[in-house]
Amino acid sequence: MSEAQSGKPRVVIVGGGAGGLELATRLGDKYGRKGKLEVTLIERNRTHVWKPKLHEIAAGSMDIAAHEVDYLAQSYWHGFRYRIGEMIGIDRERRQVLVAPYLDAEGREVTPKRSFDYDVLVIAVGSQNNDFGTPGVAEHAIKLESQADAKRFHERMVNACIRAHAQSSPLGEHQLKVAIIGAGATGVELAAELHRTTREVVAFGLDQVDAQKDIRITLIEAADRVLPALPERVSKETEKLLIKLGVDLLVGAKVSEVGSDHVSLTDGRIIPAELIVWAAGVKAPDFLKDIAGLETNRINQLAVRPTLQTTWDDNIFAIGDCSACSWGDRGNVPPRAQAAHQQASHLYSQIPRHLRGEAIKDYRYRDFGSLVSLGEFSTVGSMMGALVGGSLVFEGLFARMMYLSLYKMHEHALHGSVKVALDTLARLITRRTEPHVKLH
Questions:
Q1: CA angle 50-52-176, nearest 5°?
Q2: Deepest in the core among 8, 157, 392, 421, taking most CB within 10 A?
Q3: What is the DSSP letter of 343?
Q4: Which of these, 90, 115, 131, 127, lies nearest to 15 by C-alpha position?
Q5: What is the DSSP letter of 233?
Q6: Per-residue model confidence (pLDDT) at position 212
Q7: What is the separation of C-alpha 189 from the centre of its chain, rounded to a whole number of angstroms?
Q8: Taking the CA of residue 424 as centre, how many other CA atoms within 13 Å lie in the half-sphere pointing to its CB?
Q9: Other beta carbons within 10 Å of 330
Q10: Cα–Cα–Cα angle for 364, 312, 117, rounded to 5 degrees
Q11: How many C-beta atoms surround the C-beta of residue 305 within 10 A?
Q12: Could you tell me the sign of the dihedral formed by the alpha carbons of 277, 280, 286, 288, in that order?
């Protein structure tokens, strides 16, 4: 089944993450509303939340309703079409995207298998964690890749606290222990947030639990330091803060297996844990591997030229974490939200040129540094990494403001300055009257 076409140039964007949704919104605002382009966003979820905030949902420190974006409403207000579904293939000869049937929670078909014609296709399906085939990860660990994952972890965390409070027998060795595998930004940020939110959950009346003694968070990293992709000075400052919070750090520790109530390390150590999070490694979704004969690398990313066009098809672009875009002698552009934001802005100006048959400009990544939020305790990072070699390390209030500004840039691209200003004011007012931690 293929939808009726309007005769206008067709831009299809697959993936409603930071890059895909920003691009659909901006193209829809400028060209879709005026009938110059037919812009379609294909996404399997109904709502969008900025991925760097998933750890806050998992810890319970963020009100999802205040931050999520409904794709259908966004498409209505910004001049593009939203179609629910998951891409399963590309017919390059016919220029069609193939989308699987969409089923509801009861297994009933909502939409049939469909195809969407395109003149330009942009693939922005993001990334997922790479478990490197480690036994037990799929069965026993939670990966924070989606809102559903984050909500599931939060529910299990609250239930673990309630269970421990209600039981008459002594706590098991694994109870109220959290093991986070991978000390990149996600793992570090989750550990810091959990330190605070688990204690606040217990403080709501679960007085049979001693938060200081019973709740333990262990952060496991195979490299010799936390945040191995960031400058060493940032790692050291982060380690100091995590140790001060009471987080157990195991660096240079490789996981051999994940069990239902423990993590096994290659050196024979066993780490008891009731909740296990896998936050190590990144790869593009498996279905991208050699899709439609396009060139991919060992972690399934689509190889692109400097224009962000895939190497073997000028009409297919890839942006964000699923794109292998060269960054000169420094390897590929890192999988960060700022890269997806920049690439969406680049294609916003270049896609109309491509449709007119004009030469398009190369994309150049601008590294504004890295920021890691440790919740209300601190924010650390390195600014303008490409310009100063990562030597400018900063923390505290200024770093926190810079971290928040990245999210505000994303919100501005989706909603405009007036709505962002009003929403920010509303959140500040609401925070004074609501509890910091969500229990549902």
A1: 120
A2: 157
A3: H
A4: 127
A5: H
A6: 84
A7: 13
A8: 14
A9: 12
A10: 100
A11: 14
A12: positive
351, 11 contact by CB (below 8 A): yes
pLDDT at 383 over 60: no
H/E element, 218 = strand 216-221
The residue type of 221 is E
**SS3 call for 386:** helix
Q: How far apart are the first and last CA of the chain?
A: 40
Amino acid making up residue 137: V
DSSP H helical ranges for 267-336: none
Find the helix packing angle between 18-27 and 71-78, rounded to 10°: 30
Q: What distance in Å separates the CA atoms of residue 379 and residue 404, rounded to the nearest whole number?
A: 10
Q: Looking at 100-114, 118-132, 154-168, 361-375, which range is the least confident one? A: 361-375
For residues 381-404, one letter each, b for 16 or more C-beta atoms within 10 angstroms of the residue's C-beta and e for the rest, the string is: bbbebeeeebeebbbeeebbebbe
**Which of 431, 394, 373, 403 lies closest to 59, judged by CA?**
373
How far apart CA 403 and CA 410 sit, in angstroms, is: 12
> CA 50, CA 310: separation in Å to the nearest integer?
25
- DSSP string for residues in 42-77: EESSSEE--GGGHHHHHHT-S-GGGT-EEHHHHHHH
Cβ of 314: how many Cβ atoms within 10 Å? 13
Tokens 């579904």: give the residue. Answer: 85
Mark 153-163 as b/e (b = at least 16 C-beta within 10 Å).
bbeebbebbee
Q: How confident is the model at residue 393 (pLDDT cuts 50, 70, 90)?
A: very low
| pLDDT tens figures, 9-35 | 999 999 999 899 999 999 999 999 999
Token pair for 438: 């969500």
